[in-house]
């Protein structure tokens, strides 16, 4: 219990007014609930001695109605405050978790499954919310409310009877503690299994076309059945322990009732307790049942909340691989980027055992176009990612305007870039919304939008889309072809008119004619701006100011198109082969 309170102490300090009001109202409500049994007991004793008259009845009824009305209002108020706080902490932690996800770099997502992260943002945060709401209620009821009842029973009824009736409580405390440890361990396992199931569902939905193409529907069903059975088994294991709480509480509270009735009758018989006192005591004993149950609920909820908090905190404690430069250490750079320079850059991915870039050195002046070529896996994408700062700094220096990029403010750095990755991602919105996503504030003039569409050679496709720009592309752009998705992504990058445009094999799904049109448009519209193009199709970069050919992470060749053709290396061989293939393709079309 204390562990959970300590982990959520930041929230209770932040919302101390809310919880102070809730606790005070809970105490007042508890005091009000104690009074009616006392009035009933006194009324029974009054009847027993023959002193009941109409005035006493009216007074007693008035008191009971007044207490009921006050208790109703107070109960509404503490319920609103307490359970409102539960929703507040869930919202705050979900927002904090989302901000954390947005700060994390690719290595974080490489090491954490999407399903687990989804489970954190749903089931685990719901468990934390219950801790801050129902958990606090059960804590108050199993401690302060129970103590209030016990003091009332001891002082106003009989200390002997109270002491006898609470004899089962120590056994209850021991059993609940044991159950709590079991719940914590099994609930952690159940949440992990739920994360695995989420991940499996996400992969199946995302890869449904591949699954159907390879006739793997039955295999996917079998795998999912196995995963869901594992989730069921682990949750059943939790429920088995959960199911022990209620029978245990009922047996022990039943024992308290038995003692109360038996020993209470003995005290009445020996004139140590009145009949009204015995009735009031049994009412109080009935009221004590919930606090006894609350002990079990408290341990159950707190252990679940503790397990979920551990999972969420473990994720929130994950430090980003790439930190923002401290303000006093930030380099002073112009608003517009200057030359891009790689000096002896050697880089290795965190999960790799070999260097993915080796001693790369090159300089790209403002306004120039750099072509990056090479075999699959040669390091083209890795070279571009050095500018994106997605991973910790490499050996050597990557600089813009003479300043190492790790010293440049991250927001300023990213404001210079327009990036189209190999794997395009489109949101399940309209074509218009996906393109406008590239603008800084999601807004742009119609002229700018049309210019971006024209530059990306997307204008001709508008007539074939059901609603043109207002066509919803579906999840991940499922309703568009590969070439259309690439061109929407290119338009999204172009509409922001970035100082540095990076196209990472972004023309692979379009035909040679469309590729030539896009490259020419980019060259025309981006005159004076820096562009980096990584591609397998060398015709896309033959007009570049400088071309580098990567092989196994190192620069194998570099120069202009003419220089590389004269050198007679891999570039020339590949270019000539592609030209022959293009002519054959044109001949076949003819």
Description:
The chain is an alpha/beta fold and 590 residues long. It contains 19 helices and ten strands. Helix 15 (446-455) crosses helix 16 (482-494). The termini are far apart. The model has no long low-confidence stretch (mean pLDDT 83).
The 3D shape can be described as: elongated
The appropriate CATH architecture of the largest domain is: Up-down Bundle
Could you tell me the radius of gyration in angstroms? 36 Å
The CATH topology of the largest domain is ABC transporter transmembrane region fold
Distance between the termini: 78 Å
Helix content: 55-70%
Mean pLDDT: 83
Report the count of strand segments. Answer: 10
Q: Summarize the biggest pleated sheet.
A: 6 strands, mixed
List keywords for this structure.
ABC transporter transmembrane region fold; Rossmann fold; 3 domains; 590 residues; 10 strands
Topology of this protein?
Blueprint: H1 2-7, H2 9-14, H3 16-48, H4 54-103, H5 106-111, H6 114-157, H7 159-165, H8 169-206, H9 208-213, H10 217-269, H11 275-316, E1 340-347, E2 357-364, E3 369-374, H12 380-388, E4 395-400, E5 403-404, H13 410-415, E6 417-420, H14 431-436, H15 446-455, H16 482-494, E7 500-504, H17 512-525, E8 530-534, E9 546-551, E10 554-559, H18 561-567, H19 570-589
Parallel strand pairs: 3-8, 3-9, 6-7, 7-8
Antiparallel strand pairs: 1-2, 1-4, 4-5, 9-10
Helix pairs in contact: 3-4, 3-6, 3-11, 4-6, 6-7, 6-8, 6-11, 7-10, 8-10, 8-11, 10-11, 15-16, 18-19
State the gist of this model:
By secondary structure, the protein is of the alpha/beta class. 64% of the residues lie in helices and 9% in strands.
